[in-house]
Specification:
By secondary structure, this protein is mostly helical. It is built from ten helices and no strands.
Length: about 290
């Protein structure tokens, strides 16, 4: 397992480079700029951290360890923030046929994110009496942020799996492939974080499993970006008016809008006077002839 893990770690930058090139050649960068930022940040930090880990000289081992340690955890937080924007971007693109539901979903999405950040910061905000309090906060904030983002990734994948056909797309859509990759990575991260306390070693089976899942995610994205996407997946989707999603979208568009209240015309007189006037006009047009 240790040799396989080491091989996959060295293979990860190559796979990520192939995914990035395929992403650019597919033309998806124009529609998904946040995902392009994610690939750029992940690729650059991966090269830097691998260079520090594998290419350092023995004479500066302590400095190399400090650079790798702080760089790893800072990158952990940055990646969590970047993934948050990617999840939001994929949701916005998928929900283009239903702008009303998309607006409500984004509002709920942002409120949940704010609450998650508050809970994450509050969980590690207790005062620390040790001199390494800054290290403690850094090591705790990263996993807390990533857990919150992982839950959002799993929710996005579940939503796509249940609603992708209702929204006029299929499992061959690149949007679904992106959500699938992030969902698999999130599931692997949550499983690994729950088991790392039992297997803390670097070459443990948990880290090997996590690296295998990372490779699987990169291969999944590679296939989705290299295989041409059907033209129907790139065209504008119009929901049928009779579909349940269209009806819910119509209701959602009305939420928060100021209703137009029609002002009734003021009556010219009392009700009985109006009735009397109508009767007079009818009798004038149709006079009653009294027989002798």
């Amino acid at each position: 397992m240790a040799h396989l893990q080491e091989l996959l770690i060295k293979l990860e930058p190559v796979l990520l480079l192939i995914v990035g090139v395929a992403f650019l050649k597919s033309g998806a960068a124009r529609r998904l700029p946040a995902l392009g930022t994610y690939f750029l940040v992940r690729g650059s930090t991966l090269l830097v951290l691998d260079g520090v880990l594998w290419g350092g000289m023995p004479s500066w081992g302590t400095v190399r360890y400090a650079i790798y340690f702080y760089g790893y955890w800072l990158n952990y937080i940055v990646m969590a923030v970047t993934i948050f924007f990617v999840v939001q971007e994929v949701f916005k693109r998928v929900m283009e046929p239903a702008p009303g539901l998309r607006r409500l979903g984004l509002v709920a999405f942002r409120w949940v994110s704010i609450v998650s950040v508050v809970i994450s910061v509050g969980a590690v905000a207790l005062p620390q009496g040790t001199k390494d309090a800054a290290l403690f906060y850094l090591c705790q904030l990263g996993p807390h942020f990533m857990r919150c983002v992982s839950i959002m990734e799993l929710c996005l994948l579940a939503f796509l799996a249940l609603s992708i056909h209702t929204l006029g797309r299929s499992f061959r859509s690149r949007l679904f492939g992106i959500g699938l990759g992030f969902g698999l990575q999130a599931a692997a991260d949550l499983i690994a974080s729950a088991m790392l306390s039992k297997y803390p070693a670097m070459n443990s089976p948990v880290n090997g499993f996590l690296q295998i899942m990372t490779t699987l995610v990169l291969v999944t994205w590679m296939v989705y970006f290299l295989v041409p996407e059907p033209s129907a997946e790139r065209s504008m989707i119009v929901l049928p008016p009779t579909s349940a999603m269209a009806r819910w979208n119509a209701l959602a568009r009305g939420i928060g809008q100021t209703p137009e209240v029609a002002v009734a015309a003021q009556p010219s007189g009392f009700f009985l006077q109006d009735i009397e006037g109508v009767v007079d006009r009818v009798l004038a047009k149709n006079p009653i002839v009294v027989g002798h």
